[in-house]
Specification:
With about 375 residues, this protein is of the alpha+beta class. The protein contains 12 helices and 20 strands. The longest helix has 20 residues, at about 210-230.
Length: about 375
């Protein structure tokens, strides 16, 4: 498979891709010198080719204009359309890629001071266990990071740095992180073990509108704290949110903080359809996430809370990803009995261009709280 890198995003090419200004193109080129259908990249046997589609201003390959007919394009070549540059990359076949370290079953093992007693679940970056911390005599949630990430020294350094920052966060809606380290080849961190129901479980039944909006506000406030510490969650989804026995929202895990673009593609390649319901388009393709990625994810969850379904659906990962990228933002205010301001908020949070989303999560919190004041008291029933 080939990849095309453009404006901080990575686009996979499976056989053929059209580039141009038209929204139906595989890659939308927002440049005045781009034609509606400007150029085509395609595979001819084992060779990749590029051709200009009769564009008004031409296509350049490594600085040279494509004159007539298709030309061969190689790994690392630069495609120029107008003032924009796109880099072409070829991924090696699976049998040529380095083999990842084997997945190890850690159940019933002791890692440092933690005895792993029960498998809780598998997250996008690793596996979570219920563990007994021997010296402190308490149960904790113990997450072992995926060996493919833990074998990367640069990642380990960044991850421990960011987890250490996250451990300093003290907020009622954020699960406490106690410790992180790499022991006997296992990169891990221990965090508070929370009892309750995940938001994914609660969403199986309808949630009263005012309560649903309250959950979205609490989630946005928790993420605002993350962002104020210079962190991004990057994996905000209903399964990452717990409502504990005191009805307090708790944001679980630390998502994908510390991942660079290549590592993001690695873990997202294993992503499920359910996960991509809540990922922004660039992130779903393995691009880097930032605070505005989290804003998009909260917008998807807000839509699900109020409409009873995610904003974009499909039967496969690719279908959902395509829906995020191409379908219009749903307008649901009238259908769910909310003021029109709800649609204004969702339009900003779910904008496909991060530039047009809210500048920060604090703005989201303020807007959602203002929306709550517009609800009739009957909405709480």
């Amino acid at each position: 498979m080939a990849l095309l890198m453009f404006a901080g995003k990575t686009y996979p090419i499976a056989g053929e891709m059209i580039l141009g200004r038209h929204r139906d193109c595989g890659i939308h080129i927002p440049d005045e010198q781009s034609s509606r259908k400007h150029a085509r990249i395609f595979q001819n046997g084992s060779i990749w080719m590029i051709e200009d589609l009769g564009s008004a201003n031409g296509t350049r390959l490594n600085g040279r204009a494509l004159i007539a007919g298709p030309a061969t394009i190689a790994d690392g070549d630069l495609v120029s359309i107008g003032s924009l540059d796109l880099q072409f990359r070829i991924e090696p076949p699976d049998d040529a890629k380095p083999k990842p370290p084997p997945q190890v079953d850690l159940l019933n093992r002791q890692i440092a001071d933690h005895r792993l007693e029960k498998l809780i679940g598998k997250a996008v970056t690793g596996t979570v266990y219920k563990a007994w911390q021997v010296k402190r005599e308490r149960h904790v949630a113990f997450k072992a990071i995926d060996p493919r990430l833990a074998s990367n020294l640069d990642f380990v350094e960044r991850f421990i740095r960011d987890v250490t920052v996250a451990a300093g966060i003290q907020h009622p809606a954020v699960v406490r992180i106690f410790q992180c380290a790499k022991t006997d080849g296992v990169l891990w961190y221990a965090m508070e073990l929370v009892a309750g129901e995940t938001l994914a479980q609660l969403l199986q039944d309808p949630i009263a509108p005012r309560a649903a909006l309250g959950i979205a506000i609490d989630l946005a406030e928790a993420l605002q704290v993350y962002h104020e510490h210079g962190l991004v969650h990057g994996d905000v989804k209903p399964a990452s949110v717990m409502i504990d026995g005191k009805k307090q929202l708790r944001l679980l895990d630390i998502g994908l903080i510390g991942l660079n673009q290549d590592e993001g593609r690695l873990v997202q390649s294993d992503g499920s359809t359910r996960q991509v319901y809540y990922l922004c388009p660039a992130q779903a393709r393995g691009g880097q996430c930032n605070a505005r990625s989290d804003i998009y994810s909260v917008g998807c969850i807000l839509h699900h809370l109020l409409a009873g379904r995610p904003p974009y659906e499909g039967s496969t990962f690719a279908e959902v990803m395509a829906a995020h990228e191409s379908l219009p933002i749903p307008r649901i205010a009238t259908a769910v009995g909310f003021p029109p301001k709800l649609d204004e908020i969702l339009t900003c949070m779910l904008n496909k261009d991060p530039f047009w989303r809210y500048e920060g999560m604090g703005f989201v919190v303020a807007e959602l709280k203002e929306l709550r004041t517009m609800l009739p008291l009957a909405s709480s029933s």
